[in-house]
Amino acid sequence: MTVTNNAVIGVALSYIEANPDDVDLVRSLIVLALHGPPITARSTTPAHVTCRAAVVSPDWRVLEVVDTSSATWQLPTGHLAAADVSLLGASLRLASRHGGVDPNLVIPDGIVAFDVDAMVAPAAAGLGEPEHVHYAVTYLFHVEDRDLAVSEARAHAVRWVDPGRIPGRLGTKLSLLSRQARLVR
After folding, report:
1. Contact assessment for residue 49 and residue 135, using Cβ atoms and an 8 Å cutoff
2. Rounded Cα gap, residues 124 and 92, in angstroms
3. In angstroms, rounded to a whole number, what is the distance separating the alpha carbons of residues 180 and 163?
4. Distance between CA atoms of 137 and 77, rounded to whole angstroms?
5. Per-residue b/e over 172-183, b at no fewer than 16 CB within 10 Å?
6. Going by DSSP bridges, is the β-strand pair 132-143/106-108 parallel, antiparallel, or unpaired?
7. Residue 53 and residue 92: Cα distance in Å, rounded?
8. For residue range 126-135, what is the model confidence (pLDDT) as tens digits?
9. What residues does 139 pair with on adjacent strands?
10. Which of 20, 37, 92, 130 is packed most tightly, with the most Cβ within 10 A?
11. Residues facing residue 120 across a β-bridge
């Protein structure tokens, strides 16, 4: 079963409740989900939802993976699959698929998305995709041991970085949370 537009609206409304300053950004996602075709389908333009996983270790390092298409480092990221039943589950699947993260060894930070961001995706002529917007819904996951959390087969394609190296607002949020967690210790 695919994640429905109503489910996306529910996630967006929960996110706004927790992050009222982001209402303008998320409002357009809600409008598209209310009036458009399936917002989680890769073929939906001018925008659709993608998911990311922010996996953090006890020492507040963030998992990055190599994107094979661009040879750049990024969070485990991707489009939803038809079998995904929730955005949280899709994020966990992407952490497992791209990062080799054992889903049994992660603890979700909660059921509310940690971040929602809108990013322009360039046109992909080979895929027949025009320039469009990705609404990247990010969930935060914790692991107790980064060596055990990632499979040995993927160890060459992952790295653990300081949250300050994550670009944009997401990096700022992760850095702030990292500082707060260190103060509590």
Report:
1. yes
2. 26
3. 13
4. 9
5. ebbbebbeeeee
6. antiparallel
7. 7
8. 888 899 999 9
9. 53
10. 92
11. 133
Question: Distance between CA 81 and CA 58 in Å, rounded?
Answer: 30
Q: pLDDT (tens digit, 9 = 90+) per residue, 13-57?
A: 999 999 999 999 999 999 999 998 999 999 999 999 999 999 999
Tokens standing for 173? Answer: 């949020």
Alpha helices, H only, the chain: 5-18, 23-35, 87-99, 146-149, 168-184
What are the structural domains of the chain?
A: 5-184 (3.90.79.10)
Hey, what are 130's tokens?
A: 């025009």
What is the token pair recorded at 39?
A: 């917002």
Q: Give bridge partners of residue 141 from the DSSP assignment.
A: 55, 108
Mean pLDDT by groups of 10 residues along the chain of 185 residues: 92 97 95 94 93 96 88 93 96 93 93 96 86 96 86 80 94 92 69
